């Protein structure tokens, strides 16, 4: 197990290296000049050149990249061009919120998606099944901004069950997590449905029933843990999908995560922040996958560590 | 002694075309109908509406600049520039169908190619391809899309390419796993012992088994893709205005969901319906193409 | 033996014992597109306390459905009991509510399913699955249930029962899993135990152990046993009474001795005739030829198991370890041995599906490993697999499948290929119109015929038949074996026949090699090996085979449990090679320690 | 002086909550140049000069008084005594010099360094080396003298810019590169809490040198809030002023409700939205084409599209800016005339071109309205809706963007002076690669006029100078490098408990509100 984790970590490091290179190259090619943004409207060409030299942006691409990598290895993500703050500090101050939001979203999508999937599987072919699957479609197709605002309007403004945006307590978390999770719950309900249908056909379910177990026990103790196995691996992938969603959800709910940081940085070509956020989210994705794989390992005793 | 051999379980095969079998499924028919309606709406948009999609009508805005609610001259209302929403949705179907079919199709193609190649050949080539997939997976798709779209000037075709580049990853992962397990199946071993080459095994024997998965991901991908285009438009790197697409109509107007709900509701409905339609048809095709399902409903 | 003390006193003699289960006019039907189709019709029988009733019959005759109906586990909603009653004690099980049935299931009537590999929940510990079964019916504490579970595991003579409790199903071999399933079924001392093909998936030696176990248990606990099987050998050894079914109808029922000695119905007679029997081995038709068709020298196949941070090979499966034999033209050479001994691996190595070390000559030429060489060899060497369903691409028409080798090797045009396929179908006894159907539309036997037709398409010199008849009903098996024999005679083909079924091998092989852990322990002509087995392992295999002869007195054996030895070894620690010595013309035996 | 603005009804105490969508990037006055932090920095720091609250009238700030030499080249500022930084140390002339040296030092990377270009020694300072501005000298602890290298009529305004704020050297040196996340000035408020990405809290500076100010005990800024959500919260009583204004989607709803509408304060702002026509790219090199475009744009319709939240513009300067040419009608909307003019210019059938626009609402919408207007006279403009940085980059290249709609990146004056709309965006200096003169318009004659106007530093000649600027802009309009489209109005909405004159809520230099002077009416 330890060897497996170690091997995966090495692989992950290589993936991160690749991500850093591609991002750096893309930003290098990005048709906007960060120095202009820094220097302001009234700057003289000399000032611009001076700043460019200070930031090392006059160097060839490879030099720039290697220097970035060198600093990165020392844990230095650089300073924001426009905020002049350490990118590391900015990210550290915002990351916990994003991670909390993602965790909430995963819980929410699993709860919604799995419940819907299980019910649909048990009631396979009935009206319940069909309507649940249509609901899952709406979940997959609904724009998050609209879902977020709608939830906010109904549950926070009208019903006052939850605060209107903000961060801090559990009740702050509910609406953003639901908004972020709705998309995934659509996917999960479909996957859970087919996985469950598959499992319910298995011999061991028949064995369990032959033992005289009750319906609930067969369902939750035998079918569910097996049906959920293929889904665990998907949770890792979710982290990647969420990275896109948090930009929208965080801004709707005023959630102080890295999504907003990234969005502002992209608008202003604040390259160190974009790089930093990209790397951190890549880390999160890679770790998410790793955790999901380890969870699969733990949940499924059959998988041997290869 | 040979006499005891049992008769075949199935009834004598009544040869039916795929079409005949599809027709028996009401839901699939409904799906086909919806897709056809969308297609026809897109193609014949100029004949279905008296307006031009980009025409900002004087009557389309109130004196204070508010859009018109559905009814009267504008069956689905107007947008914030006083354009007829129905017209824009009809014309938007063109863009959205191109994105949904083409971008999604290319993504499926790439994903299938990568996943199947890696899963079937394995080894170093498979390792490299799957690491590439992991890399793409770890890469924030949206950022990639923004950069690509900014580096090339945004246009419909660039958007198609961008979406395809971003969206193949999951298909590749899923098909990789499936191909890897298919390759271990006995009928593939049997093919090998017959001397079949890789291409033959891949195209004649593996791909047909992947069709259901490809259909599932393809149909589910339609709504994701249409929405991704919308997100790109929102970030300013999508299909450029005033060209309408269902996604960008929603995104342009989403803050007005309360003041002018029709601007979000109708294009949203269009996306859900199209996705649902494709899925119904996809489901049906999946079963119809599966010979073990012949003769059942 | 501690189990003796725990289990109930010896059972009464069956016959006078009271009836525990009474099935009357049972009809089972399925709702389908075209209406309701009957699957089991008018089944009537009684089961007495302590009695073993065997239900025999070919595949699809309704054996499993009957047992599921008794359990109330017919797959809803399509399949259902249409008429009749199943009286257990004084209740009619067919009318009972689900919750009441749950109380009976597992505690009063228990069931053992055919496939031990899939019958246990893969993600639950053995102990939990046992404890759960107990606690579903008796108000036991966790601890008490655990103690009972341990008792049950001991009762089925599982080694290291404490450790088993915390293991997962995949960590156990098939035989061990089947014991667990049995333990689960007997833990609550049910009145009735239904065993649906409990040993079909097991090796002969393990089958032997499981059968002995079942017999002991039913005797000790007075449990009535319904044993479903298609193996007449098992029937003969186990049953007090036999019920033969065909197409959902009971054909004949009689006491076991009576049925075997004087079967009344034609179907029963045919069934019994089809059963391969041991001890009728024929004399080998070995032709003294100067050049063997296939010559294998010191073949070694290992599978690397990787591990560690760098993914280096840490251990190896020594699937085949230095195997040497020849196959002569026109000869049937058989490989026998228990699961995992490397039989299939040899076939796979021959066809190039796995890389091997050592020299393999085919028709005088060293079998190359280049794609071109393999391609050329594939014309001469064809394989027939164990599971015809798995070996046929379910999404292609069988006609296309049979024409596939012709297309691959670029032989003929569309019309001539079709003609060839038709001819082949005629030859293997299938109708021509079957060409346009899909594999799932055929029965198992028919499918295997399709596989044979496909293998024949290129007129190969050698056919590798890997467990090609194991999955088939006896009668079908017999017909397929006959077909193979005919073909051999007609086309002067050679077979490498792989099987674990000693009786079949004895009947059809010219020469035999017995394998154990990747090595040959004994080889010689069929008569030499079966008539005069020299190696203890060979003898054990032969002894384990159930004989379709109820009068045979079974040797007294102590039922014991043993864990199968493993071919997995660390890198740099290859297994010891066995040296073969000759004990007479071509009869080679490995020396035993 | 300050007493004139004191409100007799004002109550002391209380806290108000302001929201913003974007995070506050920095509070370093040398760096901060955003919509949100501009007014925050104003309350944390002071410069030598200041404005009367709610107006564009200059008044002395940290300088008690100032003298201008007769040639207008030397400014001598007499500092107030006893002004303390938030750390308790007294502010002196050394601090003023340090602050000016710092902002012009390229190591600081200040986007405002260019404003100080008229101070002697600026070129040497901006070349780096850290010697500082030779033109700024400390005469005594309470006197600073600033020598200019050229006459600059706007210099006092420059001294009122945030970039000229006086910072405490020891705080800058202690915080190093992270100074922007702290604050150490002399302003009415001091920074008491900053949770990145969530909230900033300003706390009253009890020692503030303007007696009686500020009224509020504290101001809380909550960032990362979508404007539409901020408005919902305002309606819910959780927010006092939504810093990003009333979102377009809610504007009509708010205005339709008299109670809410009564809390909306409307005012002008020093803003012009315009289309640049790149005079280097044919056919916009033809002045008739540019005029035709000017005539083709239906400005009324565009203001209607943004719910009438602007007034149509006729010239580069907004109406509230001194120097605005009253009575100038500009190019009036005349499709037929435009067509005719275009025909004369040799494009009777129009042409194809591109219109660049920043991609946040409502800019793409406005661009589409412009597009439709252009199509009326045969011009097919395809829209390039891009991220802000990309549009700016395209504008800075001589041959990339034929037309740019300035919205979102538009010129909101740094200081209320007519010259502010010229230099970088219409003058030759800006027409360089990477510059901000996106029409690449460079008329040497007009440039000369502009320099002349800015040399008129004599206070007595203020009106002549404004007349001259008016002439400059009229001359520019003749060449029509721009289409001035509208001047956006500001609508600030406040909670019912907010007090203070309306002007404070549309303060031209402190947006959205002048925190120093507003108060709440519900203090217990
Ligand atoms: N769920 C079902 N729906 C329709 N038909 C079924 C179903 N289950 C079984 N059958 C049919 O019922 C018949 C009897 O099946 P059953 O499983 O009882 O056979 P069996 O005697 O146990 O055969 P085997 O030896 O192969 O296990 C078969 O023809 C089978 O095709
Ligand atoms: N791909 C593989 N990787 C690792 N081990 C393998 C692989 N294939 C087979 N083995 C192992 O090699 C050994 C021999 O397998 P093989 O399939 O040849 O046995 P067999 O005699 O055909 O058994 P059976 O009767 O069960 O078919 C077994 O222990 C098996 O687990
Ligand atoms: Mg069965
Ligand atoms: Mg095998
Ligand atoms: Ni005073």
From TrEMBL, chain A:
<feature type="transmembrane region" description="Helical">
    <location>
        <begin position="273"/>
        <end position="299"/>
    </location>
</feature>
<feature type="transmembrane region" description="Helical">
    <location>
        <begin position="134"/>
        <end position="155"/>
    </location>
</feature>
<dbReference type="InterPro" id="IPR035906">
    <property type="entry name" value="MetI-like_sf"/>
</dbReference>
<keyword id="KW-0813">Transport</keyword>
<dbReference type="GO" id="GO:0005886">
    <property type="term" value="C:plasma membrane"/>
</dbReference>
<feature type="transmembrane region" description="Helical">
    <location>
        <begin position="227"/>
        <end position="253"/>
    </location>
</feature>
<keyword id="KW-1003">Cell membrane</keyword>
<dbReference type="GO" id="GO:0055085">
    <property type="term" value="P:transmembrane transport"/>
</dbReference>
<feature type="transmembrane region" description="Helical">
    <location>
        <begin position="167"/>
        <end position="188"/>
    </location>
</feature>
<keyword id="KW-0812">Transmembrane</keyword>
<feature type="transmembrane region" description="Helical">
    <location>
        <begin position="99"/>
        <end position="122"/>
    </location>
</feature>
<dbReference type="Pfam" id="PF00528">
    <property type="entry name" value="BPD_transp_1"/>
</dbReference>
<feature type="domain" description="ABC transmembrane type-1">
    <location>
        <begin position="95"/>
        <end position="296"/>
    </location>
</feature>
<keyword id="KW-0472">Membrane</keyword>
<dbReference type="InterPro" id="IPR045621">
    <property type="entry name" value="BPD_transp_1_N"/>
</dbReference>
TrEMBL record, chain B:
<dbReference type="GO" id="GO:0055085">
    <property type="term" value="P:transmembrane transport"/>
</dbReference>
<keyword id="KW-0812">Transmembrane</keyword>
<keyword id="KW-0813">Transport</keyword>
<dbReference type="GO" id="GO:0005886">
    <property type="term" value="C:plasma membrane"/>
</dbReference>
<dbReference type="InterPro" id="IPR035906">
    <property type="entry name" value="MetI-like_sf"/>
</dbReference>
<keyword id="KW-1133">Transmembrane helix</keyword>
<feature type="transmembrane region" description="Helical">
    <location>
        <begin position="135"/>
        <end position="152"/>
    </location>
</feature>
<dbReference type="GO" id="GO:0015833">
    <property type="term" value="P:peptide transport"/>
</dbReference>
<dbReference type="InterPro" id="IPR025966">
    <property type="entry name" value="OppC_N"/>
</dbReference>
<protein>
    <submittedName>
        <fullName>Peptide/nickel transport system permease protein</fullName>
    </submittedName>
</protein>
<dbReference type="Pfam" id="PF12911">
    <property type="entry name" value="OppC_N"/>
</dbReference>
<feature type="transmembrane region" description="Helical">
    <location>
        <begin position="259"/>
        <end position="281"/>
    </location>
</feature>
<keyword id="KW-0653">Protein transport</keyword>
<dbReference type="InterPro" id="IPR050366">
    <property type="entry name" value="BP-dependent_transpt_permease"/>
</dbReference>
<keyword id="KW-0571">Peptide transport</keyword>
Automatic annotation (TrEMBL), chain C:
<dbReference type="GO" id="GO:0015833">
    <property type="term" value="P:peptide transport"/>
</dbReference>
<keyword id="KW-0067">ATP-binding</keyword>
<keyword id="KW-0472">Membrane</keyword>
<dbReference type="InterPro" id="IPR013563">
    <property type="entry name" value="Oligopep_ABC_C"/>
</dbReference>
<keyword id="KW-1003">Cell membrane</keyword>
<dbReference type="InterPro" id="IPR003593">
    <property type="entry name" value="AAA+_ATPase"/>
</dbReference>
<dbReference type="InterPro" id="IPR027417">
    <property type="entry name" value="P-loop_NTPase"/>
</dbReference>
<feature type="domain" description="ABC transporter">
    <location>
        <begin position="294"/>
        <end position="542"/>
    </location>
</feature>
<feature type="domain" description="ABC transporter">
    <location>
        <begin position="23"/>
        <end position="272"/>
    </location>
</feature>
<dbReference type="Pfam" id="PF08352">
    <property type="entry name" value="oligo_HPY"/>
</dbReference>
<dbReference type="InterPro" id="IPR003439">
    <property type="entry name" value="ABC_transporter-like_ATP-bd"/>
</dbReference>
<keyword id="KW-0813">Transport</keyword>
<dbReference type="GO" id="GO:0055085">
    <property type="term" value="P:transmembrane transport"/>
</dbReference>
<dbReference type="GO" id="GO:0005886">
    <property type="term" value="C:plasma membrane"/>
</dbReference>
<dbReference type="GO" id="GO:0005524">
    <property type="term" value="F:ATP binding"/>
</dbReference>
């Amino acid at each position: 197990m330890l060897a497996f984790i170690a091997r995966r970590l090495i692989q992950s490091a290589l993936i991160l290296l690749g991500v850093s290179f591609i991002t750096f190259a893309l930003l290098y090619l990005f048709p906007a000049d960060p120095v202009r943004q820094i220097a302001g409207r009234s700057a003289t060409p000399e000032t611009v050149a001076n700043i460019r030299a200070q930031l090392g942006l006059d160097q060839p691409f490879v030099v720039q990249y290697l220097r970035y990598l060198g600093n990165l290895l020392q844990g230095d993500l650089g300073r924001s061009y426009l905020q002049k703050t350490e990118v590391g500090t900015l990210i550290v101050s915002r990351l916990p919120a994003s991670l909390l939001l993602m965790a909430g979203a995963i819980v929410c999508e699993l709860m919604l998606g799995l419940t819907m999937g299980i019910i649909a599987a048990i009631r396979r072919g009935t009206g319940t099944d069909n309507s649940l699957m249509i609901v899952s479609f709406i979940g997959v197709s609904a724009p998050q901004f609209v879902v977020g605002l709608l939830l906010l309007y109904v549950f926070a403004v009208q019903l006052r069950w939850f605060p209107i945006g903000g961060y801090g307590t559990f009740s702050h978390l509910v609406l953003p997590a639901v908004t972020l999770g709705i998309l995934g719950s659509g996917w999960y309900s479909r996957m859970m449905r087919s996985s469950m249908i598959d499992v319910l056909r298995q011999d061991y379910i028949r064995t369990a029933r032959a033992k005289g177990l009750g319906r609930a026990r067969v369902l939750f103790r035998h079918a569910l843990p097996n049906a959920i196995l293929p889904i665990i691996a998907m949770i890792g992938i979710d982290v990647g999908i969420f990275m896109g969603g948090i930009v929208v959800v965080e801004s709707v709910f005023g959630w102080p995560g890295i999504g907003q940081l990234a969005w502002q940085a992209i608008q202003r070509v604040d390259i160190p922040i974009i790089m930093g956020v990209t790397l951190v989210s890549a880390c999160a994705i890679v770790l998410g996958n790793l955790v999901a794989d380890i969870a699969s390992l733990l949940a499924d005793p059959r998988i041997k560590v290869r | 002694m040979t006499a005891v051999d049992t008769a075949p379980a199935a009834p004598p095969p009544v040869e039916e075309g795929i079409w005949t079998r599809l027709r028996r499924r009401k839901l699939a028919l409904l799906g086909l109908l919806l897709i056809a309606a969308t297609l026809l709406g897109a193609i014949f948009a100029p004949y279905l509406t008296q307006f031009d999609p980009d025409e900002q009508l004087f009557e389309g805005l109130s004196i204070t600049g508010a859009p018109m609610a559905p009814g009267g001259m504008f069956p689905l209302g107007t947008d914030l520039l006083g354009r007829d929403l129905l017209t824009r949705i009809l014309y938007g179907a063109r863009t959205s169908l191109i994105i949904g079919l083409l971008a999604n199709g290319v993504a499926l193609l790439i994903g299938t190619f990568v996943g199947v190649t890696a899963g079937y050949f394995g080894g170093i080539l498979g390792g490299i391809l799957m690491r590439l997939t992991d890399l793409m997976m770890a890469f924030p798709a949206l950022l990639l899309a923004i950069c690509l779209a900014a580096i090339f000037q945004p246009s419909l075709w660039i958007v198609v390419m961008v979406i395809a580049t971003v969206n193949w990853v999951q298909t590749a992962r899923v098909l990789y796993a499936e191909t890897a397990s298919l390759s271990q199946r006995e009928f593939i071993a049997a093919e090998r012992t017959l001397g079949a080459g890789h291409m033959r095994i891949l195209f004649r024997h593996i791909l047909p088994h992947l069709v259901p998965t490809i259909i599932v991901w393809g149909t589910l991908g339609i709504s994701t893709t249409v929405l991704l285009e919308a997100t790109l438009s929102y970030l300013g790197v999508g299909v450029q205005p005033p060209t309408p697409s269902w996604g960008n109509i929603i995104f342009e107007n989403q803050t007005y969901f309360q003041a002018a709900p029709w601007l979000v509701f109708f294009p949203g409905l269009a996306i859900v319906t199209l996705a649902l339609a494709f899925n119904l048809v996809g489901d049906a095709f999946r079963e119809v193409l599966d010979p073990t399902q012949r003769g059942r409903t | 033996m501690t189990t003796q003390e725990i289990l109930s006193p010896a059972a009464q003699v069956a016959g006078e014992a009271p009836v525990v289960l009474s099935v009357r006019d049972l009809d089972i039907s399925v709702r389908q597109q075209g209406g309701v189709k009957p699957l089991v019709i008018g089944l009537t029988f009684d089961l007495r306390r302590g009695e073993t009733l065997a239900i025999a019959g070919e595949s699809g005759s309704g054996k499993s459905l009957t047992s599921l109906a008794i359990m109330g586990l017919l797959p809803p909603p399509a399949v259902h009991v249409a008429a009749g009653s199943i009286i257990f004690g004084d209740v009619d099980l067919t009318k009972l509510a689900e919750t009441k049935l749950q109380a009976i299931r597992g505690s009063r009537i228990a069931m053992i399913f055919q496939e031990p590999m899939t019958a246990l929940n893969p993600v639950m510990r053995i102990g939990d699955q046992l404890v759960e079964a107990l606690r579903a019916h008796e108000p036991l504490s966790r601890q008490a249930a655990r103690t009972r579970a341990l008792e049950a595991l001991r009762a089925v003579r599982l080694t290291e029962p404490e450790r088993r409790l915390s293991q997962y199903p995949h960590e156990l071999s098939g035989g061990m899993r089947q014991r667990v399933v049995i333990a689960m079924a007997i833990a609550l001392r049910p009145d009735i135990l239904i065993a649906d093909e409990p040993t079909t998936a097991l090796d002969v030696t393990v089958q032997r152990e499981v059968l002995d176990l079942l017999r002991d248990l039913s005797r000790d606990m007075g449990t009535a046993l319904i044993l479903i099987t298609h193996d007449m050998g098992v029937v003969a050894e186990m049953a007090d009474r036999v019920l033969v079914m065909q197409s959902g109808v009971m054909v004949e029922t009689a006491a076991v001795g009576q049925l075997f000695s004087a079967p009344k119905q034609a179907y029963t007679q045919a069934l019994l005739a089809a059963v391969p029997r041991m001890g009728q081995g024929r004399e080998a038709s070995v032709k003294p030829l100067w050049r063997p068709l296939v010559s294998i020298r010191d073949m070694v196949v290992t599978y690397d198991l990787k591990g560690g941070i760098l993914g280096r090979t840490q251990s190896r499966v020594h699937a085949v370890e230095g195997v040497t034999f020849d196959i002569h033209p026109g000869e049937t050479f058989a490989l026998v041995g228990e699961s995992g001994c490397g039989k299939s691996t040899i076939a796979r190595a021959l066809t190039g599906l796995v890389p091997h070390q050592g020299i393999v000559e085919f028709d005088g030429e060293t079998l190359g490993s280049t794609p071109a060489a393999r391609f050329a060899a594939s014309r001469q060497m064809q394989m027939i697999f164990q599971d015809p369903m798995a070996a046929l691409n379910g999404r292609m028409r069988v006609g296309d499948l049979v024409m596939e080798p012709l297309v691959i090797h670029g032989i003929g045009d569309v019309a001539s290929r079709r003609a060839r396929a038709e001819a082949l179908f005629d030859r293997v006894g299938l109708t021509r119109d079957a060409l346009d159907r899909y594999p799932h539309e055929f029965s198992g036997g028919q499918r295997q015929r399709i596989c044979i037709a496909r293998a024949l398409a290129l007129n190969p010199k050698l056919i590798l038949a890997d467990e090609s008849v194991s999955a088939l009903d006896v009668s079908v098996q017999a017909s397929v074996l006959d077909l193979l024999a005919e073909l051999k005679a007609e086309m002067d083909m050679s077979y490498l026949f792989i099987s674990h079924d000693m009786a079949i091998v004895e009947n059809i092989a010219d020469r035999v090699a017995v394998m154990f852990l990747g090595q040959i322990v004994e080889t010689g002509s069929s008569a030499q090996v079966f008539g005069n087995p020299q190696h203890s392992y060979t003898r054990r295999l032969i002894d384990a085979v159930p004989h379709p002869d109820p009068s045979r007195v079974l040797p007294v054996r102590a039922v014991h449990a043993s864990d199968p030895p493993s071919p997995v070894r660390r890198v740099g620690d290859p297994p010891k090679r066995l040296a073969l010595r000759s004990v007479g013309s071509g009869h080679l035996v490995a020396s035993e320690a | 002086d300050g007493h004139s603005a004191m409100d007799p009804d004002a109550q002391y105490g209380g806290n108000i909550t302001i929201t913003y969508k974007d995070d506050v990037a920095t509070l370093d006055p040398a760096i901060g140049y955003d919509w949100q932090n501009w007014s925050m920095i104003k309350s944390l720091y002071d410069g030598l000069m200041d404005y009367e609250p709610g107006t564009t009238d200059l008044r002395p700030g940290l300088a008690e008084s100032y003298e201008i030499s007769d040639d207008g080249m030397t400014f001598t500022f007499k500092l107030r005594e006893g002004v303390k930084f938030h750390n308790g140390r007294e502010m002196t002339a050394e601090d003023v010099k340090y602050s000016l040296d710092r902002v012009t030092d390229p190591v600081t990377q200040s986007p405002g360094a260019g404003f100080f270009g008229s101070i002697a020694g600026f070129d040497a300072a901006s070349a780096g080396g850290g010697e500082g501005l030779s033109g700024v000298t400390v005469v005594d602890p309470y006197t600073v003298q600033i020598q200019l290298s050229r006459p600059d009529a706007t210099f006092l305004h420059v001294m009122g810019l945030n970039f000229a704020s006086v910072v405490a050297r020891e705080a800058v040196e202690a915080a190093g590169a992270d100074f922007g996340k702290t604050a150490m000035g002399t302003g009415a408020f001091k920074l008491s809490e900053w949770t990145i990405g969530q909230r900033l809290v300003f706390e009253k500076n009890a020692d503030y040198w303007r007696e009686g100010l500020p009224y509020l005990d504290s101001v809380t800024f909550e960032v990362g809030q979508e404007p539409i959500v901020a408005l919902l919260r305002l309606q819910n009583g959780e927010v006092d002023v939504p810093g990003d204004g009333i979102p377009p989607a809610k504007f009509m709803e708010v205005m339709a409700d008299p109670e809410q509408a009564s809390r909306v304060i409307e005012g002008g702002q020093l803003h012009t939205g315009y289309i640049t026509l790149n005079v280097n790219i044919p056919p916009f090199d033809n002045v008739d084409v540019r005029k035709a475009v000017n005539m083709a744009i239906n400005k009324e319709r565009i203001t209607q599209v943004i719910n009438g939240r602007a007034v149509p513009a006729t010239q580069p300067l907004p109406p509230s800016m001194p120097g605005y040419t009253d009575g100038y009608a500009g190019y009036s909307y005349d499709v037929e005339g435009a067509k005719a003019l275009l025909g004369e210019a040799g494009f009777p059938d129009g042409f194809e071109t591109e219109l660049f626009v920043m991609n946040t609402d409502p800019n793409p919408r406005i661009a589409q309205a412009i597009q439709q207007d252009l199509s009326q006279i045969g011009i097919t403009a395809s829209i390039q809706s891009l991220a802000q940085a990309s549009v700016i980059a395209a504008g800075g290249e001589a041959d990339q963007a034929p037309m740019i709609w300035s919205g979102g990146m538009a010129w909101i004056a740094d200081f209320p002076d007519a010259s502010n709309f010229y230099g970088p965006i219409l003058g030759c200096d800006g027409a360089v690669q990477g510059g901000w003169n996106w029409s690449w318009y460079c008329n040497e004659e007009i440039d000369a006029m502009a320099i002349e106007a800015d040399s008129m530093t004599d206070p007595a000649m203020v009106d002549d100078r404004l007349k001259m600027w008016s002439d400059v802009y009229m001359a520019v309009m003749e060449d029509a490098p721009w289409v001035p489209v509208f001047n956006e109005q500001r609508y600030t909405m406040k909670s019912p408990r907010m007090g203070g004159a309306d002007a404070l809520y549309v303060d031209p230099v402190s947006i959205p509100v002048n925190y120093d002077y507003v108060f709440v009416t519900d203090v217990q």
